[in-house]
Amino acid sequence: MTARFCICICMLLMAAGLSGGIASARDFQPVLLYDIGGKFDSSFNEAAFRGADAFRAETGIAYREFEPTSETQYEQALKRFARRKADLIVSVGVGYAVAIRNVAHQFPDVRFTVLDAVIDLPNVQSITFRENEGSFLVGVIAGLKSQTGRIGFMGGMDIPLIRRFGRGFAEGARYVRPDIDMVENYIGTTPVAWNDPIRAAELALAQYTRGVDIIFAAAGPSGLGVIQAARDSGRFAIGVDSNQNGVAPGHVLTSMMKRVDLAVYDAMTEAHSDQWTAGHEIRGLREEGVGYALDEHNAALIPEAMRRRVEDIRARIISGDIIVGDTAGANVSH
After folding, report:
1. Residues 308-314: contacts with CB within 8 Å, 24+ apart?
2. DSSP state letters, 26-74
3. Where are the domains of the chain?
4. 82 vs 86: CA distance, rounded Å
5. What are phi and psi for residue 2, nearest 5 degrees?
6. What SS3 string covers 206-221?
7. Can you give the residue ranges of the ABC transporter substrate-binding protein PnrA-like domain (predicted)?
8. Are 332 and 97 in contact (CB under 8 A)?
9. Local confidence band at 23 (pLDDT 50, 70, 90 cut-offs)
10. Do 34 and 65 form a contact (C-beta atoms < 8 A)?
11. Residues 139 and 213: beta-carbon distance below 8 Å
12. Do 28-130+261-283 and 131-258+290-319 fold alike per CATH?
């Protein structure tokens, strides 16, 4: 009887522990707020989705999400989920800066993680990236690959953050080819610029007509228009944020990877395990927060000698031998 009693007690304790673990998982309520452009934009938002989905697949914990159609919805969405006592609200995009600052003050017990903006509050974790470093590397590739000596940059919304991409790209290309020429365009000055692939394609075709043979598009979903123009013109485009090499194999030279997926996954994982901390974290080449994509879709476009050159330059940036220029105010707001 005593043995049976002990066994029963052990089973009850194990069941209690298991149910407690399940309850804990159910109690944790993370939220992901996308930027304008849609979840499946093949770029910034989709990278965030992949990070959140990896967290869900690993833990079995569902997350709530919201796709805004205008910036006016940023603060509304933040307040709605904060009132529902979300355990962590992850917002992707510098456009959330003002809204996060306002809402985080009102809900000091809610944790917020924001990507691409820096908010100095005790309940806000800011994660930014050294996009200029990753852009420098794809600039090196463009400089080494260009046959015409003229490359292009296509920015989405004309803001300091996107000018950071353009500056790094130009510096990288001129590091290996000082006499290279760069044509630069921005799709617009409002958030609509992120979701206008038709306008992006028009501008890209105009650049290709002027002798540009490689365009780096840092324009969110609008960048798909640049890739289409590259395919139609028989030229090259460089993707951004996510690996876009497979969008038009043979015409996407590479993609400047910005590991938004890892940032979202890490934030949710840390919050779930009570290891989340407020403050500012910067992810560059050293932290593997940025880089360039090499896979079966573009391996033939980047020969081994070029890869060795790029990797050597990558190591020199990490060591501090090469300092990549930056743009002031890149992580403030629109």
Report:
1. 309/140, 309/144, 309/176, 310/137, 310/140, 310/141, 310/144, 313/136, 313/137, 313/140, 313/172, 313/175, 313/176, 314/137, 314/285
2. HH--EEEE--TT-TTSSSHHHHHHHHHHHHHHHH----EEE--SSTHHH
3. 28-130+261-283, 131-258+290-319
4. 6
5. -65, -45
6. HHHHCCCCEEEEECHH
7. 34-326
8. yes
9. very low
10. yes
11. no
12. yes
CA-CA-CA-CA torsion for 311, 312, 316, 322, nearest 10 degrees?
A: -90
CATH numeric code, 131-258+290-319: 3.40.50.2300
- Residue 270's identity, in one-letter code, is E
Q: Which two tokens stand for residue 189?
A: 């000055």
Q: Which of 182, 117, 107, 104 is nearest to 143 (CA)?
A: 182
The pLDDT, as a whole number, for residue 26 is 56
Distances in Å between the Cα of 318 and the Cα atoms of 142, 173, 226, 285 are 20, 18, 30, 6
3-state helix, strand, coil in the chain (%, to 5): 50, 20, 30
Task: Pull the structure tokens for residue 159.
Answer: 């803001």
DSSP E strand boundaries for 189-312: 214-218, 236-241, 252-258, 279-283, 290-292
Three-state DSSP state, 273: coil
User: What's the first-to-final CA gap in the chain, in angstroms?
Assistant: 72
Cα–Cα distances in angstroms (integers) from residue 246 to residues 42, 50, 242, 249, in the given order: 10, 17, 11, 5
User: Which is nearest to 132 in space by CA: 165, 175, 179?
Assistant: 165
Residue 191 CA to residue 322 CA, distance in Å, equals 33
E runs forming strands in 97-224:
111-115, 124-129, 150-157, 181-188, 214-218
For 209, 216, 305, the CA distances from 43, given in Å and listed in that order, are: 26, 13, 29
- Report whether pLDDT(333) > 70: no
Question: Which two tokens mark 95?
Answer: 């456009």
Superfamily of domain covering 28-130+261-283:
Response regulator (3.40.50.2300)
